[in-house]
Structure formats: structure tokens, C-alpha cells
Here is the input.
Amino acid sequence: MVLSLRNKFSVSFTLVICALILANCSGEAKKEEVEKAKTDSIASCAKPVNPNGDSELSLLMREMMSSASNLKEMVKQGNVPKEFPEAFLKIHTAQPTDSETKKASFNDFADNYISNLHALYNSPKEDLTKNYNAVVNACASCHSQHCPGPLKAINKLKIE
Ligand code: HEC
Here is the structure.
């Protein structure tokens, strides 16, 4: 009886240790990913990455970036995207890394992007490529004034 209790204890002790090791390893992997993202040239606006973590606007932009590359594949296959990403409407209010990042023209550029995005989601098939490229141009025109760092990556989103 005493022995089996001890056994139970050592088994659960081993399990706890294993869990700790696993948790630590995945934590490390996450950290590496974050570091990699930071050194990646698309990840910054020429300024060093915010030491306080990623801003709300940065995170939103990363979602917009990955959504745009999904859209590119869809459009190339001739499919009209269906569910408008309402989350992107937060572009107006999302906090940037640096409070001076959003200049007076930001909201006009943001409106231009959102209205082009609406046009893409309501696009007739024959205008898909044109409307998709208009969205990418809307990203690029805001970026040319507000955040030139990712411009190269953004321009690669265009469909020739
Ligand atoms: C209205 C202006 C505006 C529009 C439109 C815009 N961006 Fe941005 N983008 C910004 C600003 C400002 C930042 C910097 C955010 C910060 O530093 O907090 C940024 C940051 C980024 C980043 C870097 C994110 C990071 O990891 O820090 C990427 C990538 C990006 N945008 C891609 C895009 C793409 C793709 C589109 C179009 C689908 C787009 N942007 C549309 C203004 C804009």
C-alpha cells in the first residue's frame, strides 16, 4: 500500500516534470518565431520593432497581409470572396506602435482601402483581378506615406 502510494506519487511527479519540459520547449519555439518575425523586413516600418510588444494595428496588418495572399489565390482561380472581413474595419481605431504613426491623411487612406475591399467582395467575375489589384494599391498608397517598410512585400501581392 505504502509502495503503491509512493509509485503513484512518482508517476505524477514525472508527469509534472514532463509537462513542464514540454511547456518550456513550446515557449522557446514561440519566442524564436517572434524573433524571426521581427527581423523579417516586412515586419517593421523602418523603425525598430516596439519593445513593448506588437501594437493592435501591427497585429491587424499581419492579418490583412495573410488575408490578402489568400485573396490573391482565390482571385487567380476566378473565385469571388464571400464573407467580408468585418474585423478589418478596426483599422480606423486600432492603436499603432507609435502614436505619431497615424498622420492626418490616415483615415482617408483607410476609407479608400475599405471601399476597395467592399468592391472586391461585390465584384463581378470579370473585374476580379482589377478590383483585387485596386485593394493592393490602396495598401501601397497608405504605406508610401505611413510605413514604407513593408511596401516591397505589398507590391508582390499584385497580380500581373
Ligand atoms: C490607412 C493606412 C494603411 C493601409 C490601408 C494599410 N496599412 Fe499596413 N500599416 C499601416 C501602418 C500605419 C502600419 C504600422 C503599424 C504600427 O507600427 O503599429 C502598418 C503595418 C503593416 C505591416 C507590418 C506589420 C507588423 O508586423 O508590424 C504590414 C505587413 C502591412 N501593414 C501590410 C498591409 C497590407 C497587406 C495592407 C492591405 C491589405 C495594408 N497594410 C494596408 C498603414 C496601412
Q: What stands out?
A: The radius of gyration is 22 Å.
